[in-house]
């Protein structure tokens, strides 16, 4: 049932919005991982980030793409929780800092073990529109013990203006989605975080909307 709802939601609501309302400058789509275990690390300015990224996948694969999302936000009421699980397929993560890492990332490891593709936002939360916030180390804690999972960086720009934080009304705005190559293995958290940040800044050079600001 959840798989069908997810397909219908993206086929009849998300994709028409992405195609008709948002003007998308898409580069590097061939770099998107098509099978898991795999991770996508993207910058985060808007709730649209997740929906646009997932809409790039064929409907036949969309149930294999799982965004990691804040439990305190998406599970705060019954309706939002139902929507997040059944239409988006989130993996909730506790941001209180009260859990051991093995517990905190258990859902992520389970999904990767099942061959799924995770979407993570290393900034942790939506920041100011089109501004890159400090990156956190959560991705490293997931991948450093796995030899089967690679990280693909994605830089998005413009979506923070199309649907800014705290706003419910979508504003038509040109947007960029630039997908980079898989990152090499990192020996330390600092090395991985620096590699992701350097990739974001390099991919940002191909964002057309940066020059329209």
From TrEMBL:
The chain crosses the membrane at residues 7-26. It holds the Pfam family Acyltransferase. One of its GO terms (molecular function) is 1-acylglycerol-3-phosphate O-acyltransferase activity. The keyword Transmembrane helix applies. Pathway: Lipid metabolism. The keyword Transferase applies. SUPFAM superfamilies: Glycerol-3-phosphate (1)-acyltransferase (SSF69593). CDD domains: LPLAT_AGPAT-like (cd07989). One of its GO terms (biological process) is phosphatidic acid biosynthetic process. Keywords: Acyltransferase, Membrane, Transferase, Transmembrane, Transmembrane helix. InterPro entries: Plipid/glycerol_acylTrfase. Residues 38-159 form the Phospholipid/glycerol acyltransferase domain. PANTHER family: 1-ACYL-SN-GLYCEROL-3-PHOSPHATE ACYLTRANSFERASE. This is 2-acyl-glycerophospho-ethanolamine acyltransferase.
């Amino acid at each position: 049932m959840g798989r069908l709802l997810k397909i219908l939601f993206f086929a009849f609501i998300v994709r028409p919005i992405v195609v008709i309302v948002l003007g998308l400058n898409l580069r590097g789509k061939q770099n998107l991982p098509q099978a898991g275990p795999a991770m996508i690390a993207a910058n985060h300015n808007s709730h649209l980030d997740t929906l646009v990224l997932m809409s790039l996948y064929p409907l036949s694969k969309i149930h294999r793409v799982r965004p990691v999302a804040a439990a305190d936000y998406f599970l705060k009421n019954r309706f939002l929780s139902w929507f997040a699980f059944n239409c988006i397929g989130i993996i909730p993560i506790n941001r209180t800092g009260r859990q051991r890492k093995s517990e905190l990332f258990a859902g992520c490891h389970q999904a990767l073990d099942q061959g799924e593709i995770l979407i993570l936002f290393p900034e942790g939360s939506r920041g100011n529109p089109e501004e890159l916030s400090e990156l956190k180390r959560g991705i490293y804690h997931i991948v450093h013990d796995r030899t089967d999972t690679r990280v693909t960086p994605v830089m998005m720009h413009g979506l923070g203006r199309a649907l800014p934080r705290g706003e419910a009304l979508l504003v038509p705005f040109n947007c960029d989605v630039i997908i980079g190559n898989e990152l090499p293995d990192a020996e330390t958290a600092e090395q991985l975080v620096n590699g992701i940040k350097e990739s974001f800044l390099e991919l940002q050079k191909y964002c057309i909307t940066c020059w329209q600001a």
